[in-house]
Amino acid sequence: MSDDDKTRRLDDEYFKKIAERAKGAPAGSDQDKTQIVGQKHERETFQTDSDKTQIYRSAKIPEIPELDLMGDPPTGWLVAISGPGKGSVLTIGIGNNGVGRGSEARINIPFDDNQISRGQSFSVVYDPKNRRYYLLPGTGKTLLYYGEEPVLERLDLKTGMCFQVGGTSFRFIALCDETFDWQ
Hints:
Strand order of the largest sheet: 4-3-13-12-9-10
Radius of gyration: 27 Å
Number of helices: 3
CATH topology of the largest domain: Tumour Suppressor Smad4
CATH class of the largest domain: Mainly Beta
Structural class: mainly beta
Helix content: 10-25%
Strand content: 25-35%
Shape: elongated
CATH architecture of the largest domain: Sandwich
Oligomer: single chain
Number of strands: 13
Order of helices and strands: HHEHEEEEEEEEEEEE
Distance between the termini: 57 Å
Largest sheet: 6 strands, antiparallel
């Protein structure tokens, strides 16, 4: 049995079953020797000479992480189809979406492709007025390639197009187009 199998969360069904058995167990039985104790101040009120096993619950309530929303609805996606991030999906919002490994990019690359510079590697722009997408080179040192050619100026981006930056290839999927838009 590994250490992971020995450690369980206090709120899982395993401990709930132990607590129920302990409550209804006859005095002096093995099942009567388990006691679930709540917060720190409750711990101090229990006698330490008890032969019961005491399970302590944390006084802290776990924090629920906030959702990382862009503030606007999705307009499309970039799907990593090869490379270190294969299978990763990046959501594109309205306007200029700088993409990179660094914190200054609107869309942060969530995987390690060390060939991609930390700066803004490229941008995907969604123009809601004309319902069009554009692919732009970034300010980082890593070049962006469409086919075998580097992207050095604005390129019209159509759904299904693939491009490469660093060791990762992306496929662009549009949600908004001439048939649908959020406005």
